[in-house]
Write a structure and sequence with these properties.
It is built from three helices and no strands. The chain is an all-alpha fold and 85 residues long. It is elongated and about 85 Å long. The mean pLDDT is 87.
Amino acid sequence: MASITIRNLDDEIKHKLRVRAAMHGRSMEEEAREILRRVMSEPAPPRDLAAAIRSRLTPSARANLELPAREPMREPPLLDLDGDA
């Protein structure tokens, strides 16, 4: 098995890890291994925003919207720039 050393760990993180390990009846090292095991076994996040959104929606929750047909663009209003109104 491989081993790693974590340098420059914030004191607050170390304290939280110590408390969490004690709550689970483990050493800090075993608690860190368990956290890493759990996080690394999670599926990888989608690569883009659209894929992330699609992955959260079930097929039945997706809306199939019918877009209305486009109408021709209206003529812009005529403005009286001379103030003759």
